[in-house]
Amino acid sequence: MAGAEGPDLIVAYLEMLAAERGAAANTLAAYRRDLDHYLAALAASGRDPLDTDAGEVRAYLADLETQGLKAASAARRLSCLRGFHKFLYAEGLAETDPSAPVGGPRRGRTLPKVLSVAEVDDLLRTARERAVAPQAENATGGERRRAVRMLCLLETLYATGLRVSELVALPRSAATTKQRYLVVKGKGGRERLVPLTDLARAAMREHLTHLTGDGPFLFPSDSESGHLTRQAFARDLKIAAAAAGIREDRVSPHVLRHAFASHLLQNGADLRIVQELLGHADISTTQIYTHVLDERLKSMVRDLHPLMDDPAESGTAPV
């Protein structure tokens, strides 16, 4: 790759990510956008990615901050740049890795948006009512199919905690399996088992009766991918939330995934089990939910620890 131009370097890096690390198409597309933007900024400054320095990387990140990029997004961008420069250095294309000494932006601890159990119950109950008799007697066949599909999406997402990209791309065979779990291929090609509830299985079977043709997907669409897009599901989910009396800005597919994890932890699930169900490679990713554990542990100590009894109430006094 001697004398490679910027775009060629990006292609080489992305090919490595795909071949050696099994990076998903969405990840590769995001990295390409980030690196295209970065190399354009370097070119505007008259710098070459093979011969730049830490100061230039810091200046780029500082410029992103002035443009209003959030700390979390800036940290993701820096992670992308670090991987790119580390690759160039490892391949012998660059003499140094200018990103190595660059510190990441400070990020506050952002807790995920979560719906309460009662709110999820309202969302599912409303979806069931609309699936049984959407718009009462005036429903068209298309409206009924969309209502049944939405119920299937909601029941399956809340039962499994799947990523939205995994959910919309489920194979049609998921609705006919006799097993009480799904085998899901997640990020990096890693497979995991995800249990299914009876309600989710029933919703899948009902949805299947409304499908026509023999396509491979459980949620087929005329989109480029052949299945329901994440954007279309997110749009329809906001409509379902409004029907349940929940503010649209509080609901997204990712919020339901968070609700799945948080509600499990609230009811005593082990953090490692939730990590496995969510498909997180690193436990640190799952630890964003430790605020749920903190409250549960405090409550447990308050209720169960023998020294938490009030001596005045128990009629005893300390010796």
Based on the structure, what is the oligomeric state of the protein chains? single chain
The end-to-end distance, rounded to whole angstroms, is 80 Å
Helicity level: 55-70%
Largest sheet: 2 strands, antiparallel
Order of helices and strands: HHHHHHHEEHHHHHHH
Beta percentage is under 5%
| Strand element count | 2
Average of the residue pLDDT scores: 82
Q: How is the largest sheet built, in terms of strand order? A: 1-2
Number of helices: 14
Q: Looking at the structure, what is the overall shape?
A: elongated
Structural class: mainly alpha
Unreliable stretches (pLDDT < 50, length at least 5) are 311-319
Radius of gyration based on Cα positions: 25 Å
Summary keywords:
single chain, 319 residues, mainly alpha, two-stranded antiparallel sheet, 57% helix, 3% strand, elongated, disordered C terminus
Task: Characterise the protein shown here.
This protein is mainly alpha-helical and 319 residues long. Helix content is 57%, strand content 3%. The chain has helices spanning 6-21, 25-44, 54-66, 71-90, 117-132, 141-160, 164-168, 198-209, 230-243, 253-266, 271-278, 283-286, 290-304, 311-314; strands at 181-185, 191-195. It has a two-stranded antiparallel sheet. Helix 1 runs antiparallel to helix 2 and helix 6 (141-160) packs across helix 10 (253-266). The relative contact order is 0.09.
Question: What is the secondary structure topology, with strand pairs?
Answer:
Blueprint (H helix, E strand, L loop, with lengths): L5 H16 L3 H20 L9 H13 L4 H20 L26 H16 L8 H20 L3 H5 L12 E5 L5 E5 L2 H12 L20 H14 L9 H14 L4 H8 L4 H4 L3 H15 L6 H4 L5
Helix pairs in contact: 1-2, 2-4, 5-6, 6-8, 6-10
